[in-house]
Amino acid sequence: MTVRRLSTLSTDTPALRQVGAHVKARPSTMYWFLMVSDLATAIWMYTVGPWLDKTSKFTATGTLGGHHVALLVIALIGFLMLATLAVVTDNFTHTTPKVALARNLACIISIVALTGLIALILMALLSRVLFGPLRP
To answer: Domain residue spans in the chain?
Structure first.
């Protein structure tokens, strides 16, 4: 049994050297959806964010506990990152490992911006299941 050192495996393999050339892009529909939802979240937080913060604890869930300004900034950062990456990657069709890392980071930021809306929807569905129909 021969023992190979880890240092010999690092760049000697041609497949490992060319990994940047063969990274495939995911379907871009998801990224465009995240861009639109980030922009919608930013507009939503700008217009009704203070009202959601002050109305009740239930509506403050949509602003991540009453932090509508932070959520507005997070949504704008996610939108600007994805918009920049759309230009750089030719509409999310070309990628490199560094661009893929930036794209994944932008997606994580976008999902964080959407968690307030997702929480409101889930709470509304849960209340519907627990309490039944709202009409008598």
So the answer is: 28-56+66-131
Q: Fill in the DSSP letter of residue 27.
A: P
Tokens of 13: 């393999």
What is the Cβ-side half-sphere exposure of residue 102, based on CA atoms within 13 angstroms?
A: 17
pTM reported for the whole predicted model:
0.72
Strand segments (E) across 37-126: none
> Rg for the chain (alpha carbons), in Å?
21
pLDDT tens digit string along 47-73? 999 998 898 888 888 888 889 999 999
CA atoms within 13 A of residue 66's CA, in its CB half-sphere: 5
Answer for the pair 70, 64: CB distance below 8 angstroms, yes or no: yes
Q: What is the pLDDT of residues 80-118, one digit of tens each?
A: 999 999 999 888 888 889 999 999 999 999 999 999 888
Q: Six-digit token pair at 108?
A: 């994580």
Q: Name the amino acid, one letter, at 99.
A: V
